[in-house]
Automatic annotation (TrEMBL):
Keywords: Cytoplasm, Methyltransferase, S-adenosyl-L-methionine, Transferase
Enzyme Commission code(s) on record: 2.1.1.-
Residues spanning the signal sequence: none
Gene: prmA
Origin species: Caldicellulosiruptor acetigenus 6A
A Pfam family annotated for this UniProt entry: PrmA
UniProt protein name: Ribosomal protein L11 methyltransferase
GO annotation terms (biological process): methylation
């Protein structure tokens, strides 16, 4: 299958806002390349930084099916960029369109990833050999066209929180599962039941493949956040973006058991206060806030 790759040259300040726009317009995958890999190697030592060269700009690449109306899509992106340019510096914002084969895309990105250990979890690319030391829990992963490889600060924060809050026998819901990395980790830490949902069909397929790769049984289905979910869970995880977490906070108590824990990440520092206010408004008590780079994780619990 072929995809349209839409690449936007921008600033690091604008990369998250632009990523959100591209996802809203139907992107099946977004890749961000910026200097965090070079300037903060302590956070990115699981990326092969030799594959990157230092730049004075950021690049956001999104992948759309070849069935997309690329002229209309590009025009819409241009208009949306003009809107956000009123509030933040988006730099040159040059848009480049090219065609890419899905297989070639996946193979190209394999060279950037190597195993990473986060606490007692080792995230290992499916194509690499790896021997864990001690009692490390291994999660093998092939990200495909879905977000979530363990290389992003927000995902790393979630993996740390899973090790702290997910206990054997618990029921866990992973909202916006992406590659399935967090759902798989929860199951490997002996959660009794794990339900993983994502609105994107590609993500659902990738998560299913990764679950099989790790030999774990996880319920994975296409779903819009927690809409239609009637069960209650001990832990709900959402590694998404601030706006969606704020929206989700209105419904999260409905799917949490008494004293249930909500692990939310993907929150840029500038939006942390907005998220905290929405939690207070919706009867979620803050347990802890953790920060890594420009990203934040909030752990809260049900109070009503």
């Amino acid at each position: 299958m072929k995809w349209y790759e839409i690449s936007i040259k921008t600033t690091e300040e604008a990369e998250d806002a632009i990523s959100n726009i591209l996802y809203e317009l139907g992107a099946n995958g977004v890749v961000i390349e910026d200097n965090e890999i070079v300037t903060r190697p302590n956070l990115w030592d699981y990326i092969d930084e030799n594959q990157f060269t230092k730049k004075d700009y950021a690049k956001v690449c999104a992948y759309f099916p070849e069935s997309s109306n690329i002229l209309e899509l590009t025009h819409t992106i241009e208009e949306r960029l003009k809107e956000i340019a009123k509030y933040i510096d988006i730099g040159e914002a040059k848009i480049t369109v090219s065609e890419v084969d899905e297989k070639d895309w996946a193979e190209e990105w394999k060279k950037y990833y190597k195993p990473v250990e986060i606490g007692n979890i080792a995230i290992v690319p499916s194509w690499q050999d790896y021997k864990a030391e001690g009692n490390k829990t291994i999660v093998r992963l092939d990200p495909g066209m879905a977000f979530g490889t363990g290389t992003h600060e927000s995902t790393a924060l979630c993996l740390e929180a899973i090790q702290e809050y997910v206990k054997p026998g618990m029921d866990v819901l992973d909202v916006g599962t992406g590659s399935g990395i967090l759902a798989i980790a929860a199951k490997k830490f002996l959660a009794k039941r794990v339900l993983a949902v994502d609105i994107d069909e590609v993500a659902v397929k990738v998560a299913e493949e990764n679950a099989r790769l790790n030999g774990v049984e996880i319920e994975i289905k296409k779903n819009d956040l927690v809409e239609g979910i009637e069960e209650k869970f001990d832990v709900v995880i959402a590694n998404i973006v601030a706006d969606i977490i704020i929206k989700l906070s209105k419904d999260i108590n409905r799917v949490l058991k008494e004293d249930g824990i909500f692990i939310s990440s993907g929150i840029i520092r500038d939006r942390l206060e907005d998220v905290l206010k929405s939690f207070e408004k919706n009867s979620l008590e803050i347990v802890e806030v953790k920060k890594l780079g420009t990203w934040c994780l909030v752990v809260s619990k049900k109070t009503v």
